[in-house]
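Q: Predict the bound structure with MRU.
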Amino acid sequence: MIDQTVLPETEDYLYFDSYLDVADSITTMKVRGAPAIGVTAALGLALAASKSDASTTEDAITELREAAIVLGATRPTAVNLFWAISRMMSMAEANNEKSLPEFRAILIEEAVRIQEEDVDRNESLSEFGASLIEDGDNVLTHCNAGALACAGCGTAVGVITAAWEQGKKIHVYVDETRPRLQGAKLTAWELKRAGVPMTLITDSMAGHFMQQGKVQKVVVGADRIAANGDVANKIGTYSVAVLAQAHNIPFYVAAPTSTIDLNIVDGSHIPIEERAEDEVTIVGKTRLAPLDIQVANPAFDVTPNRLVAAIVTETGVAHAPYLETLAAAVGDRNSANDIDRS
Ligand code: MRU
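A: Predicted complex:
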């Protein structure tokens, strides 16, 4: 994988032969972004099965359960992580009668399938989302929901680049995204490579540009979407959504259905990761704040569904009431309200 902690200065690729190192790469955010950490955990479990020195399939499953616990303890908010681990473990348990070589091959195939499906989901949701972007739009995005955060072309950035590739003359405002600067370091890097016109701004400038009429759409990704459409995403997303509502700007969320958690009724049940204080107090090698002060660093916030104009998934565009339309998006045909699949 590409090491996202050293971009944009250095393009460095990491290789792993232990699932413990894979888990560490998620915790330390060498890989980050909800779909990407799901795919990484799946590949980590395939690696654990391949490298295990168990002599029976039963012993390999026991080791895999331990690996699932370690990988599942890396980051709490993005549900894609748990979705991918649970899918891998179901595949493992369902094949407990197979020979060890067959068992290992099945897990590798499943992890690669999870990766390939994410590529397809990115592509499909980007096409659906691009239909919401009009020629001449200035689109604001927060954090990084691009190829780095996924297995394919990305979610919010996928929507933006798909609109650009359709020939729409758009421009992007990229929030720098304090404290870890995923916007400045990663989204700006991706959009520059894609040739999409953009302007990097600090998070606190978003309201100013909206007030000046310079933002027509907001598109962000998500780490977990509750059944009612409340959206957990990078800290600062909620502020952007409130600002968008105040200025009558549609606020769109783009995410694969693997980010939708129908087991959680609303956003109040989404666990919010609290990260180290030095992410806030130190930038690069420079300490910004005095030692021994109280610091908060929640990595995500929750945007209530009433601020979300639409949720774009690979199956279509969902509008409120999300309790109905998200169930339809993930394939529950009993939903009274369907999604826009055109
Ligand atoms: O802490 P991060 O960088 O993993 O947070 C990432 C985000 O919040 C993204 O917007 C989200 O995962 C969607 S990525 C397609």
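A: The longest helix spans residues 100-130.
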